[in-house]
Amino acid sequence: MLFNRMKKMSNVLIKKIDKIDIEHNRCLKVRAVISSCSVCTDVCPAPGSIQINQDSLELQDCLDCGLCTTVCPTNALKWNSPPLSQIEQRIKRLAKNEQTVYITCSAMEHKTGHSSIVEVPCLGMLPAEFWLNIGLSVNNLSILVSSDNCKQCSITTGEQVFQQQLDKAYENHSNPFPICSEVSLQNQTDSSIDHGKRNFLSSLMEEVKETNTITVKEVLEVNKTLSPFEKFDQYYQQKNEIEEISDEVNEIKQSLADQVLKDNVIHTDKRSLLLSAFKQSPQLQEEMTILMPTIKESCTRCGACSFLCPTDALYADGKDIILATNKCVSCQLCVEICYEKHISMEPKAATIMNNKYMYILKS
Ligand code: SF4
Ligand code: SF4
Q1: Which of 36, 260, 290, 334 is the best mutation target for the ligand 2 pocket, counting ligand atoms within 8 Å of the beta carbon and taking the most?
Q2: In whole angstroms, what is the distance from residue 327 CA to residue 319 CA?
Q3: What is the per-residue pLDDT for 182?
Q4: Does 59 contact ligand 1 (Cβ within 6 A)?
Q5: Does residue 317 or residue 210 have the better pLDDT?
Q6: Which residue has the higher pLDDT, 77 or 112?
Q7: In 3D, which of 216, 317, 199 has the Cα closest to residue 259?
Q8: 115 half-sphere exposure, CB direction, 13 A CA radius
Q9: What confidence score (pLDDT) does residue 193 get?
């Protein structure tokens, strides 16, 4: 028991060193070979680095640019050094004290130790939801970037992904961020402070705090995702139970709904950032649309969509299908695996996520 816990702890610490977390079971191609998802390999600037096998996802000779984590819809690949939420918090903290906060990439030359600069490996590792969210809460953030630098960079697809994500945020009414190619030295608030040391110490503290949270979560198995086999067993166990007590169908419907509501929802980074943006701007949520699955009456109730959904957003009991609207990440795997094409994705007002669950097929 003690040995197992220590082994888990050491796994966590080893995992902490990796800049990108891999959750094999969340990859659409690992879950269903039929999936056409290839967005991570399409944007990866180091061809062959991402290997998708029958039951695992591997990274080899990775440049640690984080572009794949930006585009992966399910967090199968997730940036972890530091997580997006920490980058966001750091910008917010700095924005309170500094005249202007700059976000830039590690290839961009700037005065090192400058107190108001937040550096990430590549600006393309920040998804549209990040820009949308930060744009609503911070009004003194500038992007420090130079197209000339990008053209010489080994992360060849970085500039394109950065621009696409920024454009996507602007489509959703984010105010444009000022873009500059050098830092204003007047922005430095207190030259007597050794900002290099201060930044180092504060990032060290953040790392320690985050390690503790991740370690505790891992050891307590809070974030454990079931393997397809466990989920398959669980599905059949639930199905058999439901058949045995078919005369209590109405009660079961209620309990399924309760289960969805009570479930510990683990959002992807992008959904968490989007929900945080909606909290800050209910108007944004009213104006935005989001793709969600709808199912035709002709559905045969085979349950394959529920079985393969990577975020457990679909619950099927052989008669009805419930969609947990706050768990669905619009990955479209359910559409792709339905052989008889009973499922399609339809744009819905983003306020649908407040419902938490809804019947998308009712007997
Ligand atoms: S983007 Fe994510 S879900 Fe799609 S193939 Fe890559 S790792 Fe899998
Ligand atoms: S319900 Fe469909 S679109 Fe939504 S997360 Fe599950 S598989 Fe993806």
Answers
A1: 334
A2: 21
A3: 81
A4: no
A5: 317
A6: 77
A7: 317
A8: 20
A9: 41
